[in-house]
Amino acid sequence: MTGSLSSTAKERMNILVFGKDGQLGKAFQEELSKLTTALLVKPTIQYVGRSECDLADRELLSQLLNQVEPRLIINASAYTAVDKAETESNLAFAINVRAPEVMAQYAADHGATFLHYSTDYVFDGEKYGYYLEDDIRNPLGIYGKSKAAGEDVIARIFASNNGSGQYAIFRTSWVYGDGGNLIQTILRLAKEREELKIINDQFGVPTSANWLAQVSLNLVLDEHPHLRKFTSGIYHAVPAGETTWYGLACLAVQVALDAGVTLKAHPSTIKPILAVEYPLPAPRPINSRMSTDKLHLVFAGLGDMSKLEQLNQPWDKAVQSYVASLAKDGLI
Ligand SMILES: NC(=O)c1ccc[n+]([C@@H]2O[C@H](COP(=O)([O-])OP(=O)(O)OC[C@H]3O[C@@H](n4cnc5c(N)ncnc54)[C@H](OP(=O)(O)O)[C@@H]3O)[C@@H](O)[C@H]2O)c1
C-alpha cells in the first residue's frame, strides 16, 4: 500500500518510539526530552510499549502507524532473550522481522524516517579484527538469525521503494541502561559471592543506551531539530575501545567499591574463564568488535566536532559514570 502523509502530519514533527519500557526506549525518552525542552514548538512524541501495542499483532501495529502518521519511527523494541530464542524462534522472528517489516513498509510508503537496531550477534566472531558493515554475516543462534533477517527485510523494502523514505539500522553490542543488564547482574553477584568466574575470551564493546540514543539522534536530526537527509543503510554504533566480559566485570566492581558500596567480591577475586567453561543455550561470537569508520565519515561530513567527540567516547568512562550513578542512587 502506498500512501502519503496528511498535510497536518507533514507540517508536524511527529515521532513514534516503540519499546518504551526497554533500556534503549527509556534512553530515548530521556534524550528526546532534553533535546526538546527548550523548543517553543515541540514535536509530538508518542512512546509505545507492549500494553499499547503488542508487536506480534501486525494489524494493530499498522493501525497505530496510520493513526499517528509519524515522520520519524524509532524502533527500540526487540525480542532480546538471546537464550530463550533458541526455543521461541517463531516469537523472535515475529518481533525482530515481521514487526519491523510493517514499520519499514510504512516509512518507505509515506516518506518517513525509520531507525532500527541490530546486533553484533549477526556475526560468528571468526573474523580477525573489526567487523565492517558489509562483512558476511553468519549468526550462531536464533536471536542473531532473527536480527539478521530483520536487517534484510528493511533493506529490501527501501530498495524496492523509490519514495523519499530513509532508514538507518544501528548495529550495536553489549547494551546497558535502565533495565536488567550484565553490569547489574555482575554487581548483584559481587554482593552475594566472594568469587566470580567471568568469561575472558569474548571481545566486544559495552554500549550505554543513552549514548546510543544520542548518536542515533545526531544522525537523523539537525540542530533545530529537523529531520536531516542521510544515506540509508547499516551503521555500526559502539563507543571507542574494547574489552572482555571479565574486563568489564573488574571495572564495574572496582568503581562500585570506590564509591563505597560493600561487596563480597573484589577485582582480585574475579577469575577469568573461557567461554567453553560456561556453555549457554545460544553460542555467542568470540569477536564482537565492529568498526565505526562509516559513522565517523558521516559525522565528519557534518562538520560538527562535538558529534565526532561523542562517537569517540571511550566505553570505560561511560561504564564508570553508569556504575557511579547506580551507587549514588543506592541501586547496587
Ligand atoms: N541488550 C543488548 O545487549 C543488545 C546488544 C546488541 C543489540 N541490541 C539491540 O538494541 C535494541 C534495544 O535493546 P534493549 O537492550 O533496549 O532491549 P530491551 O531492554 O530488552 O527492550 C526491548 C523492548 O521491546 C519490547 N518488546 C518485546 N516484545 C514485544 C512485543 N511483543 N510487543 C511490544 N513490545 C515488545 C519489550 O517490552 P517489555 O518491556 O514489555 O518486555 C522491551 O521493552 C534491540 O534492537 C536489540 O536487539 C541489544
Mind sketching the topology for me?
Layout lengths: L6 H5 L2 E5 L4 H14 L7 E5 L9 H11 L3 E4 L13 H22 L2 E7 L22 H18 L6 E7 L2 E2 L5 H11 L3 E4 L3 E2 L2 E2 H12 L12 E4 L6 E2 H14 L11 E4 L19 H10 L2 H7 L3 H14 L4
Parallel strand pairs: 1-2, 1-3, 3-4, 4-5, 5-10, 6-9, 7-12
Antiparallel strand pairs: 8-11
Helix pairs in contact: 2-7, 3-4, 4-5, 6-8, 8-11, 9-10
Bound molecules: NADP nicotinamide-adenine-dinucleotide phosphate (NAP).
Polypeptide structure, described:
By secondary structure, this protein is α/β, with parallel strands linked by helices. The chain has a single domain, classed as NAD(P)-binding Rossmann-like Domain (Rossmann fold, 3-Layer(aba) Sandwich). Helices cover 42% and strands 14% of the residues. The mean pLDDT is 94. NADP nicotinamide-adenine-dinucleotide phosphate binds next to helix 2 and strand 4. The site of NADP nicotinamide-adenine-dinucleotide phosphate has 26 residues, from helix 2 and strand 4.
